[in-house]
Amino acid sequence: MTCTAPPTAARTTDDSFALAATGPAPVPTADAWRLSLQCGPPAPATARREARRVMHAWGADEETVDDALLVVSELVTNAVQYAEPPFALSLCFFDDRAILVAVTDGGPRTQDQHDDRPADEHGRGTFIVDAVAIAADYVTGRDGQVSHWAVVGPSAL
To answer: pTM score > 0.70 for this model?
Structure first.
């Protein structure tokens, strides 16, 4: 995976992210990490557990880790509920202490799936992500895969 600078994400042919600067010079990244996820109810918990371990190893501050874990949870949950596999979580840690969280899935589920939860218990994921992220969006690749991404951290990139 390649990370150079947020906030514009574009899918490359090798299923990685190339982040292009829209403003000043690119911000070099300290590290990048990717995890393939199994489709199913355990996926969000697995993603949070592994992401927490990696972000702590990177030395990310607790507030950024908490925000990133909230984004991980929302994006993975949405992928499991509404998209086709395969699922993958990617993280990039930037020198300015920001973290890019991206969840890639196989695109929208073709079959209609009924959601049994009460109306007040779903549909808030995008609002939550937007509330904690510096920037957030999604990209659809030529292969139909969709990557939802958000940048969290202490600075406005």
So the answer is: yes
